[in-house]
Amino acid sequence: HGRLGHGGPRESRVERRLACRLMGNAWGQAPVVTAHLSLPCPGMWGLVNNAGISTFGEVEFTSMETYKEVAEVNLWGTVRTTKSFLPLIRRAKGRVVNISSMLGRMANPARSPYCITKFGVEAFSDCLRYEMHSLGVKVSVVEPGNFIAATSLYSPESIQAIAKKMWDELPEVVRKDYGKKYFDEKIAKMETYCSSGSTDTSPVIDAVTHALTATTPYTRYHPMDYYWWLRMQIITHLPGAISDMIYIR
Q: Which PROSITE patterns does this UniProt record tie to the protein (predicted)?
């Protein structure tokens, strides 16, 4: 599981390049897997698309390079890997399990690079599920809640490193209009999330296991605490004006 921005700017760039390279190479991995299967090949039962990176920043603070880097792994990596292995999955009438996020169902301020890729994974998974139904392939989506504490997705050091790079690269008009005080307040708020969320990832593991092994896997799994589950139901089922009144601060 790749992490964007963990360990400073240099390590961030290295991790992002490595993650993108791994996802880019996935297209050619199916023949490698096939070479290690016994013949006649019955196919491959399950594929779990779990690779992902994340970052933060309001829309005007986020560079197009960052949007593209996150999408390259989270969205296009999922599409490429799935397309690469679908012939084997179809042959076995197997399973595709895509790891999305609760942020693939509801947006959050300062997380647009991550949200748009996970919304994309949700749409891709739905389209694929419709197409694969008549072929006997089951497609499931796992939407984890807040597991930042368990995954060490962010640390105060990594947040400061990302923030410095972000501020240094901002257009002058954006820096002038928002001001350093506003920017610093948003970064301080982001730092409060470093140790938030659950430290137990077993609900996510259980969800993936069920999706791969159950006779009738669920379309969507929601391994998250009750607060986030309820918030997701409110945002996805009630009029936007109501959820906006509750959650926009």
A: ADH_SHORT
